[in-house]
Each structure stands twice: as structure tokens, then as C-alpha cells.
Amino acid sequence: MLDELRQHLARLQKPAGLVDGPALLPLGVPAVDEVLGGGLARGALHEIAALSEAHLPAATGFALGLAALTSSSFRGAPTGEPGIQKQLLNARLDSGSAPLARPGMTAKHLVWIAEDMALAESGAPHGAGLDDFSLSPQRLLTVAVAHRQDLMWTMEEALRCRAVGAVLGELRHGALDSVAVRRLSLAAADSGALAFLLRAQPAHDASTAVTRWVVGTAPSSLSSPSPGWGGSAPKAPGWGDIGTEFTPTRRASHGDLPPPGGGERKEPGAPRFAAHLTRNRRGPAASWILEWRPTDERFVLAAHAEPVAAPLRHRSHQKVA
Amino acid sequence: METGIGELPLVVAGKRGNADVLVAVDETAERLGLTPGLALAQARAMHPALDVVPEDASADAELLESIADWCLRYTPLIACDAPDGLLLDISGCAHLYGGERPLVADLGRRLAAAGFAYRIAIAGTIGAAFAAARDGRPDAYANGEERDILCPLPLGALRLPPPMVASLGRVGLKCIGDIIDMPRAPLTARFGGELLRQLDRALGREHEPLTPRLPVAPYVAEKRFHDPIAREEDVLGTVEMLAVQLAAALERRGDGARRIELTLFRTDGALRRIAAGTARPLRDPADMRALFAERLNALADELDPGFGFDMARLSVLVAEPAPPEQIGIGAAEDVGELVRLVDRLSARLGAQRVRRAVAQDSHIPEVASVSLPAQATGTDDGWAAFHRYRAEAELAPRPLRLLSQPEPIEVVAEVPDGPPLRFKWRRALHDVAAADGPERIEGVWWHPQPSEDIAPAGNRARDYFRVEDKGGHRFWLFRAGLYRDLTRADVAQGAIAAPAWFVHGMFG
Fold first, then answer.
1. Shortest CA distance to A291 belongs to which of B70, B508, B189, B64?
2. How many domains does chain B have?
3. Whether residue B309 sits in one domain with residue B368
4. Optimal mutation site among A51, A138, A157, interface B, most CBs of chain B within 10 A
5. Distance from CA of B320 to the nearest CA of A (A)
6. Is there a domain that residue B466 lies in?
7. For the domain A31-76+105-220+272-320, what is the CATH code?
8. Using H for helix, E for strand and C for coil, what is the string for B144-185?
């Protein structure tokens, strides 16, 4: 009797996105997709918390990477040759001006909602910076709200709009109103859009989110620049490929000086995220270090983080970071 | 204008020149023989028990404005005739009340209920109505009666400067009838053109435009209620009903509404004006209703219907040509959906809060990409040009989040022009593991150097570095100012500030 009721309740509670199987967004990383049961559920709420406030930009990048996957059609093998990358880059840039030019891409919009305080403290989304997450700034709508209620209301409103593919709500502090979160889940399930709740700190409150991530930064694979800054030595694909050539706009004022630091001069590589999946309705919790490849518009697995063990909140490094 | 209630005679006194004189008197005072223009001292001497209120010109003007607002229920064409008159152009409006006399009766009844003394006259010209209301017998006169109205009235009724009236009086010209048939040339020669101009205007020989105090909306629809409405649903229902009328008118001329105003007339005379903007020309009544639903939601208690609204008017303040509606194509539908979302959010949260990124033609990062209200941005937001430029110039990556103001940091750098080794920002120390740069962005020489307090980074050349600290946090730092520009003497004299470091953004 009790079991029956429980099952009934579970059926009622399941957002529609979970019932309709195909609404999954594969990350393209087999290890992650396996744990997620095929990919990130569309039409559902996902919580992405920064390890601490200092990690908020990384959490933002991770969320935007996931949002970018919704419109990305380059799901093929990673391409290593610079020529092809350039083509891809150009294709991406062109698509920015004509969103319908690329086959298979839906010109859905991203709505980024944040409280005034968050925008002042952690910086506002920068249009030109979105390019590196394969998101066209034309498709971004930024909404600054005065308080939490407006944030929730705006997220819900945005989710109900058919032209919106992903909604990112940024929450700085404090617990969530469970009713509001529930409404968000339902709104997302109705529309099939991705809803992200970006939090500045990990929280342990109850939530109807399908997945809960805690994201921190991870050191990127540092690359040594070629001598004289102007060469074309192979580098890790990604960040380094855009604009490291010697051009008048990027004149190194000390180009002939020996590299400082005992000849060990490093450049940052593609962004990496230490992503901990702490709550997962479809499978176990897990941790990875994921690298975002801007030119391929996808994540790749950089390395395993420490083996999956106790829940994250018991780890000491969380406090330190 | 206002009648006093107390037993004491009430007078309003103000300064005219150096003297305190009576500006307005109530009925009791009038019966005692006090008239406006009398010196206050003299009035006090006549009647020591006077209730004297100091004049407050700005409050009077405000009151007149609010009465003018309230009169919008009769006509949109209203001009204030300071200090105590209102001009209403009721051409084509009177039939709504069943004629001019019923309109005057309605206006008078409402004014009296609000406690105002009034004189109302209707005539074919502004000048004639003015003269009849102030010096003649207030009534509704037909067109062509101007001559009859004016002839018996004193010349002061013609809106002439008092010195001119006085000098006309000295030659025995007291009434308008005295000059109405006189030869024009000698009058003009002696008293100037103003006299005959005012006479011509009052007689309708010369057209006198009325300049309304509010811009007249190109599209207006209104509804009066026998029973006042107060509930929000009723208001919204009315909005939709009026919007249907507007939509038909808009469609006929191929226009769409960019700014709509809802005016609600409360029974006690107060006015509620609620405006809503749209991101693109709008015609759909359901959309207009949705827009005002958000506005009313945001207003909540501020709306305060009191005893209800007895009239509602929906006017399109700004209209723009709208292309014929496109139906059926998916992409267009999606765009329409987004526009509706933008309108809804802007109506509820304020247009300033809903923003879109726009690329501008500049190298300075905070200027190159700015966010502007989404309703105000056009279709060309500059990104196509930016992306072309970016591909050509091979710009370095830009940060995901940009701080509203570059924040100063303390930096240890190995060589003056090189990237930092470690830096301190917001009380946290970061050891730099990797750096990429510099990307030099020169200051704009055609702008003057702003003071350091306003723009800490100033207008100096910036060297941007993309750095990653040992923990993997990625920052966008820059040094404002170049060491190459610096001489020891400059620093000593403080002519050029030493280069300073800032953090400007964070990468994902």
C-alpha cells in the first residue's frame, strides 16, 4: 500500500523531461555521458555551484559551455590541424552574423539573469568574451534584477518563452525557496529549455534539480610559447590559437628580452574545470577535470580528479579553496 | 479661486513689486469690499480680523497642472493659461456629452464638487472665450457671436498689457466696442501692432493656434463607465477592448505602437498614467493586454483605485511603421516570441534592466562591448562588424565577465614591462603560473586626460595580459601607462602618474 503510494508520488514528481527519454544533451565525453545516463537532461533544472566565490567565473564558464552545446553542431572528432581550426573559427564567426546559416543549429537565445549585486561584484557578462564559449552575443539577453523574487519570476518567464534555449540564473547567497525551484523545474519541463541555477557557493538545501554540480578551476595545460612570440609552433588547440601571431596590435614591448623566470615562460591553455557531480538523479556522483575546446565547441576529458569518494562536503580542501 | 470655509475672511497675499498686496480673496472677503490688488496693510486697516495666507506660486501652478490633467477627460488639447486659466479645445468633443452646454454643466458640477469656484465660457476663438469667461457673461456662445460678446467688454479683456490699456483709457477708449470699427492705421501707429492683433484673434480674423501642454497622441481610444471599475481584471479587460479599437486604426495606416499609455481617471479627479514601451511596433491587442498586466503587477498597491475609475483612455504615444504581420515561418515566430519576452520583462522590471550586448567601434574593451536596453537596440548591433574585425586582427581572447570598473591591484613584476609574477586583488594573493601578452591598446588621444578620481585607469595606453594563477583562476589584467614614457623628472614632478596595474575581467 505504502509502496504503491510512493510510486504514485514518484510518478507525479518526475518532471516531464525525465519521462521523455530523447531529451538528452550528450556532452560528447563518454565517461560523463555514461554517468549522466546519456547526457544532460533538457527541459530540466541543473544547479551549478562554484567551489567558492573565487571560482564563480569558472562555474560561469562551465555553465556557458553546457549552454553552448545546445546550439553546437560540431560533434565530430576533434580536429588538430590549424587550417581546419581556422575554418571552423571562421564558420563560427560567420554564423554569428547569420545564425541560420549553419545547418542543424537552432537560433535559440540565452537569457542570463543576475542580481544587481552579483553583476557589480563578479562582473557582468562581456559580449566579446562569449565568443570563446561559442555563444553569439546577439543571442544573449541580460537581465539585472533587484531581488530574489524577481530573479525567480524572470527565470520562469524566460523558460516559458519558446525562443529561449537556455536560462542562466545567478544566485549569490542564501537558501532557495523550494516552491520557486519546483516551479522552475516544471517550467523547464514544459518548454524543453535548459535551466541553470548558478550559485556562488555550494549549497545543501533540498532541490528538484536533476543534477547538481560543484565546479572549481583547474590549472590548464600550460604551453611554452615559441621563441620570439611570433612563430607558429604547435600548441594545444584552443585559446592559444586565436591571435598569438605577431601583429601590430599585439606588439610585444620586450620581444627581444630573454624570457623571465629562468627561461620558463608559460602561456595559459584551454580552460579547465574541476567538475564534481554531487547529485545525479540518473546515476552515481563523480568528478572529472574537463577541458573546454573553443574551436571544437565541446568538452574533452583532461584527467580524472581524485577518485570518487566521500561526498564533497566532507573534504577539507573545499574550505581552503 | 478656492473658497474658504472658516468664518474669517480669507485672503491670499503676495509680493508685487515691493508691496504686499492681496492676490486672491474668498467670498466673505469679497462681500467686505476687499479686492485683489489691494495693499495688504490697507486691507488689514479696513478689517483687522483677516485670515492671511502667503502666496505659493509654485503650488498654484502645480494645482493648475493637475486640474489640466484632470480635464484630459474632455479633450486631449489643453493649454495652461497661467496663473488661473485653462484653455480647452473641445472641437469635436462636445457631442460625447450631448452638446456644449451639457459639457459645461458636467465640468462645472465636477469642479464645484471638488470645491473650486469657476467661470466657464465657450466661444469660437480663444480670445472671445477668454474675454467672456473673465469679464463677460459666462455661457456657451456659437461661432460668429464673437463681435456681440466683445463689444460691451472693457479693453482689458483683450489680453493686452496693462500700460496699453491705461494709455487707451487716457484717450477715452474704454470698451472693445470703441475700437472695433475704428480705422486700423492710426490705431496701429499709436498703440503698436499688438492691439489689433489681439482684436483680430478674438474676432477670428486671424488664426490663433492652441499649443497643448502635452503632446497629442496619434492614436487614442477611450471608454467611460457609468459604474466605476476598480478590479485589476476589469482594467485589463478594458485595455484589451480599447486595444482592439487601436489595432484597427493602427492597421489602417500600417503603423505599430512603440510606446503606449494607459490613463485612468479616478472618480475623485486623480489621474493614473501608466506607460509601457515595446521592442518593436506592436498591434496585437492580446500583447498589449499582457504588457499592461505586467505593469499593473509591478505597480501593485501604487495603482490605488480608491472608489474606482470612471474613465479609461489608451493612447499610442509613439507609433512606427510596421511591416505586415508575418505568419507561419518558424524563425520569425521565434523572434516574435523573444520580442514579447523582452517587452514583458521590460514592463515588469523596467526597460533599463533588460539588456542586450552591442558591439561598438572602439578598441577600449569596456566601450567595444556595452550592454544597452534591449528595447532600444536595433537589428544592427555591430557584432557582424566586430567578428569580421576580430578574425582579421586576430584579437586575443576576451574575458567572460568584465568588471564594471577596472580594480587596482598590487603587482610584483619581474621586468617593468613584463607580466606580473604575483598580484594581490581583493586581499587575496595570486601567484602567476602562466601569462600571455601583452596586447597593447592605446589610449584615445583625442579625449582629454580624465582625472584619476573619475577613471582610475585614465586614458593611458594599456597593456593587457591574460594570466593564470597557480590555482587555475584566469584573469585579465592590464597595466595602464608605459614605463617607456616615464622619465625620472616626470615622476618627481608628478606630471605623469607612474604605471598602475588593474584587474579588468575574469576568464571562464
1. B508
2. 4
3. no
4. A138
5. 24
6. yes
7. 3.40.50.300
8. CCHHHHHCCCEHHHHCCCHHHHHHHHHCCCCEHHHHHCCCHH
Contacts of residue B471 in chain A, CB cutoff 8 Å? 217, 219, 321
Beta strands in B143-293 (DSSP E): 219-229, 255-266, 271-282
Contacts of A127 in chain B (CB under 8 A): 357-359, 369, 371, 383
Q: How far apart are CA B151 and CA B146, in angstroms?
A: 9
Domain presence at residue B171: no
Residue B384's domain spans which residues?
355-393
Q: Identify the residue whose cell numbers are 545543501.
A: A204
Who's near A55: CB < 8 A, 6+ residues apart? A215, A216, A217, A321, B473
**Do B323 and B438 share a domain, yes or no?**
no
- Between positions 269 and 298 of A, the ones with CB within 8 A of B are 269, 271-272, 274, 292
Beta strands in B442-496 (DSSP E): 462-469, 474-480
Q: Are B325 and B365 found together in one domain? A: no
Kindly state whether B356 is in contact with chain A, defined as any CB-CB distance less than 8 angstroms: yes
Q: What is the ipTM, given to two decimal places?
A: 0.73
Nearest-CB residue to A250 (from B396, B414, B482): B396
What are the pLDDT digits (tens) for A132-166?
Answer: 887 888 888 999 999 888 999 999 999 988 888 89
Nearest CA in chain A to B333: A163
Domain boundaries, chain A: 31-76+105-220+272-320
Closest partner CB to A218 (pick from B397, B472, B507) = B472
Question: Is residue B282 domain-shared with residue B387, that is, in the same domain?
Answer: no
Which residues in chain A have their CB less than 8 angstroms from residue B417's CB? 253-254
Q: Which residue of B has its CA nearest to A272?
A: B472
Q: How far apart are CA B164 and CA B270, in angstroms?
A: 41
Q: Which three cell numbers stand for residue B34?
A: 476687499
Q: Return the DSSP state at A267.
A: B
On whether both B330 and B232 belong to a single domain, the answer is: yes
Taking CA atoms, what residue in B is nearest to A60?
A: B508
Residues B339 and B365 in one domain: no
Residues B342 and B440 in one domain: no
The single-letter DSSP state of residue A223 is B
A169's grid cell = 540564473
Strand partners, A24: A41
Indicate whether B168 belongs to any domain: no
Interchain CB contacts (distance < 8 Å): A and B: 256
Asked if residue B342 is part of any domain, the answer here is yes
Output Rg (C-alpha) for chain A, integer angstroms. Answer: 21
Closest residue by Cα to residue B304 from B232, B227, B226, B234:
B232
Q: How confident is the model over A45-70, as pLDDT tens digits?
A: 999 999 998 999 999 999 999 988 87
B329 touches chain A (CB under 8 A): no
What is the tens place of the pLDDT at every residue in B212-260? Answer: 888 888 899 989 898 999 888 899 999 999 999 999 998 888 888 989 9
Strand intervals (E) in B346-473: 354-359, 369-373, 401-413, 420-425, 428-441, 462-469
A-contacting residues in B 481-500 (Cβ below 8 Å): 482, 484
Secondary structure of residue B355 in the 3-state scheme:
strand
Q: Would you say B321 and B254 are in contact if contact means Cβ atoms under 8 Å apart?
A: yes
